[in-house]
């Protein structure tokens, strides 16, 4: 089973819309934006006035984000049904994926970039209608710390994507697995793999409990967060874990008002929130007994699987487990004594 849905809510400027009810676009509504195949612009020098090409983001609806500021992809090009090139840009200072130690891009922004790439291709190249639901199954990522440094300008990335498993029912895409190699100015920056399934709105409503679509469907009340510095954060608002009496065991804080983790309404816990919880749990475990750490932990590799739906209204418990490598932890998430998520995460210590 899968555990996290890439929601395809498409917020629109409707003053009478209630926040508790996601605004979904029916499969037959509208057409997808025209495909763009303009070449990427690598020159940071402001161009002279003229016809372009100009750099902009892809439509936010195609990457399942409500805020334009959260869109990381700038263009894409099809080479064949299985090979694509996508360009992306990382800001020097993201509002959530803040630089680690002030010197390195947060590697989880690479995971979000690869996630957005899959949604873009599914809609723009495989003709998945807006309104369908994406169920995340696997997400792996390895990054090259030498290419994660924050420079004097935003980081321009190229994603080289190969679709290895394309599953259809008739002409409709039902599942996709793809491998991504990231390069930064031609140099390898990382590689990753994602797999997900796609279901129609009718199927999704049939397999989900009816109460998750009601306005009263809410997470448990927020509990006291861990100290931000112990989990590599600067502000309590970005801390997604609370302490428990047991070492290396934490409770998930599901804050549906967080502008990045809940960019739009969800009926479940997003997969990227669980990945952030794993990273914070690993950092807290490495910083155990050190309330004022001076060493930062740069994630370099993770292999993640989502095994069940992560229900919004159930308590979620995060556990870290040691391995033979002191820099690698196995991290699990549990609801009602069932494992809903597990990842093996390796970090590299770094100082300011």
Automatic annotation (TrEMBL):
Signal peptide: none annotated. Residues 62-197, 231-347 form the A-factor biosynthesis hotdog domain. It comes from the Bacteria. Residues 1-49 are annotated as: Disordered. GO terms for molecular function: transferase activity. It holds the Pfam family AfsA. This is A-factor biosynthesis hotdog domain-containing protein. It comes from Streptomyces parvulus.
């Amino acid at each position: 089973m899968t555990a996290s849905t890439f929601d395809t809510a498409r917020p629109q400027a409707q003053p009478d819309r209630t926040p508790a009810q996601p605004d979904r676009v029916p499969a037959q509504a509208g057409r997808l934006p025209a495909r763009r195949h303009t070449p990427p612009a690598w020159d940071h020098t402001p161009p002279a006035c003229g016809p372009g090409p100009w750099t902009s983001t892809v439509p936010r609806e195609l990457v399942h984000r409500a805020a334009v500021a959260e869109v990381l992809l700038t263009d894409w090009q099809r080479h064949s049904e299985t090979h694509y090139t996508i360009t992306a840009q990382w800001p020097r200072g993201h509002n959530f994926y803040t630089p680690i130690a002030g010197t390195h891009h947060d590697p989880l922004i690479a995971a979000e970039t690869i996630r957005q790439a899959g949604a873009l291709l599914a809609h723009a190249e495989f003709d998945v209608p807006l309104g369908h639901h994406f169920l995340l199954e696997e997400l792996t990522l390895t990054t090259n710390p030498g290419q994660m440094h924050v420079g004097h300008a935003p980081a321009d990335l190229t994603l080289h994507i190969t679709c290895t498993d394309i599953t259809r029912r008739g002409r409709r895409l039902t599942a996709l697995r793809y491998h991504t190699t990231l390069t930064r100015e031609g140099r390898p920056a990382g590689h990753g793999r994602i797999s997900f399934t796609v279901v129609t709105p009718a199927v999704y409503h049939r397999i989900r409990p009816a109460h998750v679509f009601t306005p009263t469907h809410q997470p448990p009340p927020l509990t006291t967060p861990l100290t931000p510095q112990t989990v590599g954060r600067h502000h309590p608002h970005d801390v997604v874990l609370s302490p428990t009496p047991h070492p290396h065991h934490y409770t998930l804080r599901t804050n549906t008002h967080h502008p990045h983790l809940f960019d739009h309404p969800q009926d479940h816990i997003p997969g990227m929130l669980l990945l952030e919880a794993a990273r914070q749990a690993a950092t807290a475990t490495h910083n155990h007994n050190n309330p004022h750490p001076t060493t930062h932990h740069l994630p370099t590799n993770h292999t993640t699987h989502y095994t069940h739906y992560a229900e919004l209204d159930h308590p979620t418990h995060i556990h870290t487990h040691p391995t033979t490598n002191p820099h690698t932890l196995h991290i699990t998430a549990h609801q009602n004594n069932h494992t809903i998520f597990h990842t093996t995460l390796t970090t590299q210590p770094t100082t300011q």
